[in-house]
Amino acid sequence: MGSPDFSTVTLEALRATEHEIVCVYSQPPRPAGRGKADRRTPVHLAAEAAHLPVRTPRTLKKQSEQDAFAALNVDLAIVVAYGLILPPPILNAPRLGCVNLHASLLPRWRGAAPIQRAIMAGDAVSGIQAMQMDAGLDTGDILYTEETPLTPDDTAGTLHDRLASLGANMLPTVISQLANGTATPTKQSEHGITYASKLGPEDQKIDWTRSAKDVDAQIRGLSPFPAARFDWTPPDANTPIRIKPLMSSYERGDGRPGEVLDDNLLVACGEGAVRITRLQRPGKGPMDAADFLRGTAIHRGQIFQ
Amino acid sequence: MPILQAMAILDILTVPDPRLKDVSLPVEGGVTDAHRKLMDDMLDTMYAAPGIGLAAIQVGVRLRIIVMDLMENDEKNPRFFVNPEILETIEETKPYEEGCLSVPDIFDEIERPARCKLRYLDYNGNAVEEWAEGLYAVCIQHEMDHLEGTLFIDYLSRLKRQRAVDKVKKAKRLSAAEAN
Q1: B179 touches chain A (CB under 8 A)
Q2: How many angstroms separate the CA atoms of A276 and A257, rounded?
Q3: Closest residue on chain B to A193 (Cα)
Q4: ipTM of this predicted complex?
Q5: Chain A residue closest to B44 (CA)?
Q6: CA–CA dist A147, A172 (Å, integer)
Q7: Residue range of the domain that includes A217
Q8: Catalytic site residue from B98, B130, B143, B148
Q9: Which CATH superfamily is domain B18-167 in?
């Protein structure tokens, strides 16, 4: 069970094992892209390419869907970024239950956006865990953990790719341990629980009065999607343009929050300054700051909102 | 397999438990780890029930704390409320068929303001002000009634209310007899 690219990596890893994939569940095709034609999920496409049976129910709350799942009579369900709630009849149908790959070190960052929240909070380490699912929000017992340190160059994008491949690598071990009864389910700690609440527009807007460390973490944590944002009004224009910074670092620097401190996009924050090294402007693709500055001069002393 | 045992699930009080009539007390001195632990356990309890909202008094804790997850778009996205207040409501009202984990299997239509402005502290103790509408507005008003000792069946006629309480009592007696 999965939907985005993250789960496609897992599906490929599963196909490489000796286990039989009975059925692939994915979110139904939804309108997307230009023209808003119905588009199948990456997992759906990968499953079709591999000639695996695919099911795309809108919800698993219906009795008929629960019966259809139970009728598959599977040993195990692997759930990775599926995006539908699994009610108890689904969780209990497979002989060995449902195992979820979760992209954080639980109980930190239970919920919807663990990868982004870990970077935004400036965590030093992240990881991916295999968890025996229960009815709660990422509350199940942990079966396997792979940690990875976070670097100042990490974005949500790089961490996502790294965790997807770590998860895919550990999956065969997790499955064989469950199959031969050597798995060691460990209860999650009752301490250090945090929730990775869904990202909203209020998470994207940069508040330049925060510390440079926080703003840098926000920019990298939201990159490449949905991206942090701020407004800049060019000196010869009345309307601001919305800029999405995609990569940054932080250094020392003094100025009013939002003030540009040099000709290379060093921006003063509440404490210290952030250097923006990659960005996107409306209607254009992502570009390095150096390329952007060749076409659009932003000089020292200007103010970002 | 231990599939449904990992969570901390608390007992939910049902009518006519007199504690459900208590007025809950404000959380003093900010949101602490003890409050967060309570909210974690309330959340587990709510998902296991399953329900979309739970007030602390429903698990016997007399504090102005609420957890909620409307599970819109078939996605889990929990919300936490400490010391919630309704700052204003609009005049327009909307009916909604409400239920309650403390009055199991009873549903009836209740009319409430369609939008309300809230102020509360979140899980991390940050102050939030926002407008609620739709199911969010229904649910937060229902849960905030619990903080005053009011249940949704209190808005029904005396006859309907008594019938609801009797039904819950009878169901409880039956399930207790089954367990023995």
Answers
A1: no
A2: 15
A3: B40
A4: 0.88
A5: A136
A6: 17
A7: 201-295
A8: B143
A9: Peptide deformylase (3.90.45.10)
